Amino acid sequence: NSPGVELKLANKIFLAEDVVVKPEYQQLAEDIFASSVEKVDFSKTNEAVKTINDWCEQQTNSKIKNVVSA
């Protein structure tokens, strides 16, 4: 217990839209890693980068804003 210290973990799997995810894998990701799967159109590079960075920024309370770049 340290005042002002917070540990927050976040996981998400970003996959190309054409990738088929087996339901068993998706369930394991959710159960073991508390992770969801999101399909991203990586051919639209700027949109994909924005999607990933926006998620990261939201999960880190704006402490990390740019985890990937185009």
What is this entry, summarized?
The protein is of the alpha+beta class. The chain has helices at residues 23-33, 45-59; strands spanning 12-16, 36-40. Strands 1-2 form a two-stranded parallel ribbon.
Major sheet strand order:
1-2
Q: Write down the overall geometry.
A: flat
Instruction: From the alpha carbons, calculate the radius of gyration and give it in angstroms.
Output: 14 Å
Q: SSE order, as H and E? A: EHEH
Helical coverage, percent range: 25-40%
Q: What proportion of the residues form beta strands (DSSP E)?
A: 5-15%
Question: What structural class results from the helix and strand content?
Answer: alpha+beta
List descriptors.
alpha+beta, about 70 residues, about 35% helix, two-stranded parallel sheet, single chain
What would you say this structure looks like, in words?
One of its GO terms (cellular component) is extracellular space. By secondary structure, the chain is of the alpha+beta class. The chain has one domain (12-60). The protein is 37% helix and 14% strand. The protein is built from two helices and two strands, in the order βαβα. It has helices spanning 23-33, 45-59; strands at 12-16, 36-40. Strands 1-2 form a two-stranded parallel sheet. The protein is flat, with a radius of gyration of 14 Å. The N and C termini lie far apart (39 Å).
